[in-house]
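Issue 218. Parser rejects a valid record. Input:
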Amino acid sequence: MAVDRPRIAALVRELIEAIGEDPHRPGLTGTPERVATTWAEFFAGVGEDPAAPLAHTISVSHGPAPETEPSGAVILRDVLFRSVCEHHLLPFQGRAHIAYLPGEKVVGLGALPKVVDVLAARPQVQERLGEQIADTIATALDAKGVLIVLDARHQCVTTRGGRQPIASTVTIAARGTLAEPAARSEIVALIGSGDQESA
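Output the parser choked on:
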């Protein structure tokens, strides 16, 4: 379902009036349309299938390189994402770290950020976003295990209320064998080692 831009623009004009401003003054005349375009981008994932980027899989045992069958997890670190908090409609943004233990199917690494993009482009809370990413990868790839770590800064924390500009929120979602404490600890340590390398 496409975002209704004309309706958003009309509502933004009302919102501008509701805060005591004039939507017809020069600085605000184009604002409703600009906000509508922004929201169309921010919420492009509403109604989209997050598993679609994972549709093209590669067989581990019968694929182009069966001799390279992975014996451990595939980890993709530092996937940048942004979303909108559904509580205040303020953005949050950060990094997603994705790990999965393949079964019979793998995907090209470029497909994983697309899953994050689809699920992040809708009103969200960080905890649910991580769970949805984990579920999508686990189900679509029939993975033996999945671990998702999200580290994000929320404008509802950094710019309002307590105004903590450098505070970040870390959440973890785990499935299958990567939900076991030892396996999870190993993956989290590998993800953390990337921070030291880039420092």
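Fixed in the parser; the record now loads. The helical segments are 5-18, 31-42, 111-120, 126-141, 155-158, 181-198.
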